[in-house]
Amino acid sequence: xxCVGCSKEFSLVPVGITCAGKSPKxxxxxxxxxxxxxxxxxxxxxxxxxxxxxxxxxELLVCADLLKKGYPVFRAMSPQCPCDVAxxxxxxxxxxxxxxxxxxxxxxxxxxxxxxxxxxTSKFDVLAVVEHNGTITYSPDLPEKRSVRDTEPLDxxxx
Length: 159
Prior knowledge:
This protein is of the alpha+beta class. It folds into two domains: 1-42, no CATH class; 47-148, Trna Endonuclease, Chain: A, domain 1 (3-Layer(aba) Sandwich). The protein has two helices and eight strands. It has helices spanning 32-42, 51-68, and strands spanning 14-15, 25-26, 73-75, 85-89, 92-103, 110-112, 126-131, 136-139. The longest helix has 18 residues, at 51-68.
């Protein structure tokens, strides 16, 4: 396998624990030093603002991006909410988790500051990874939007 940081060949070594029949994670870098150097390059030009400020700014970027794409968007008012942002498609509410991420060189893969397998995927439907340059990658891709006006009114009774 090729190292994501330096492109050198190295033997593939499974790491981590396999769960729920999923294949184990594999190393992407040949050494810890190579990994640190690759992430240092990714973070070049990033802000010195506190992490909480950067996270809040990235949530607002995702809100603005979704609004520009035509989705009705809602933002969490409390830092303890189970998701950062939500948007509607027809009658379905999609929960969005926003994370800061980096584009790795040379393969161009986008990776989050927190590994996706460590995030409780049951708490969100869409992961939005925002790079320091403002590029947003959604996983899975955003659903096709439908007009809220074309559907029956939402019924919140019994919630």
